[in-house]
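Supplementary Data S3. Sequence and structure tokens for construct A.
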Amino acid sequence: MKNTLKKGYQFRRILRTGNAFRGTSFRAVYRLNSLGIMRLGFSLSAKSGNAVKRNLIRRRLRHLSREKGMNTGADVVIMPEGKLVINNWEHLRKDFMELLVSIKETRKSRQKNSYKIK
């Protein structure tokens, strides 16, 4: 199974029912899944930069997801904030780590709430 989101219905479901995250270099909407892996989808328009810049950002975020977020268990749609700058590797890394923390906190709160007696 690939770790990407490609179908329109997957994007729509995440954008409609997911939790939002806003960083300095990108915005993200995520939804927990039961697969145990992180699946990424990108929504990058031509306004955000040329193809070289857009693909560079995609490659960098995929690398971070393989390196740090493999067992996160979430579907994530990433949208850039304004123009893409190639030299913002540290901002991307910082924002991605904050995104992982946000996902883990959401998972913990869901597990905590599922154990409460109603």
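Construct B, processed identically:
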Amino acid sequence: MKLVAVIALIAVFSPIYAGADTVNPVSNILSGCTLAGASCGWVDLINLINAIVHYGVQLIAILLVLVLLYTGFMYLTSGGDVGKVKKARDMLTKMMWGLAYTLCGWIIVYFILKSLGVDPFFYDSII
């Protein structure tokens, strides 16, 4: 599990070290609304929330794939040990519940943004 945490931290912070933080949609929205002394408004807030949700779902999808790989590795190297197989199966079950919670949360945010008149698939659609 520590390996998954280390890989997740590397995935989160590597764009900062590579100088790719300007590619991040969140930083683009924040820098875009403060140019030329303009203040951020309601549209910028909605775009920011939408970008954070998209970024978070992508990050969670990457983490779920890594946990799936780790769980498969645990299952394959269990050697028939009942305790290790049970631990791998429990981890897989928790991963599936995490996926279900993520999808439910995304659906809730999608419908809230849709009711506000935003196209939730594109975070810059109302600018």
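DSSP finds four helices and no strands in the chain. Residues 42-76 form the longest helix (35 residues).
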